[in-house]
Amino acid sequence: TQSIPDPMAAASEETTTEMTGLFRYMADAAVFQRCSDGSRYAVSMAGDFKSAEAYYNRMEKYGAAALMSFEVEVTKNTGEGLAEIITIQKVNSSSYAENCPDWSPKLRFEI
């Protein structure tokens, strides 16, 4: 017999995507702006946020933007603020750069 996939099991699977953008952390709130299209996301303090915070703090940015790349899970925000929230699963890279690379649209970090 052939098994039929459970649609509920598929819906519960977490999917991650890589995002590169400008990360900013200040006063217990973090925001991320993706370089490829300028989309802005609230950043959850769950997942591997502590690693991202540690990289950011080592750069002594003090609220300024830092170019970082993450593996993230994106979810809808059911509360106030930005429409979507990212939960960092893994920090891929961090940089002292405060702007996106030349290959991306020219972005100005806005809160």
Brief description of this entry?
The protein is mainly β and 111 residues long.
Number of E-state strands = 5
Mean pLDDT comes to 84
- Uncertain regions: pLDDT < 50 for 5+ in a row? 7-13
- The fraction of residues in strands falls at 35-45%
Shape: globular
Which structural class fits the helix and strand makeup? mainly beta
Taking the sheet with the most strands, its summary is: 5 strands, mixed, barrel
Annotation field: number of helices: 2
Helix content: 10-25%
Radius of gyration: 16 Å
* Secondary-structure element order, N to C: HEEEHEE
Strand order of the largest sheet: 1-2-3-5-4
Using brief descriptors, characterize the structure shown.
111 residues; mainly beta; 5-stranded mixed β-barrel; 5 strands
Write the layout of secondary structure elements.
Blueprint: H1 7-12, E1 17-26, E2 29-34, E3 40-43, H2 49-58, E4 66-76, E5 84-95
Parallel strand pairs: 3-5
Antiparallel strand pairs: 1-2, 1-4, 2-3, 4-5
Walk me through this protein's architecture.
With 111 residues, the chain is mainly β. It has two helices and five strands. Strands 1-2-3-5-4 form a five-stranded mixed barrel. A hairpin with a 5-residue loop joins strand 2 and strand 3. The longest helix has 10 residues.
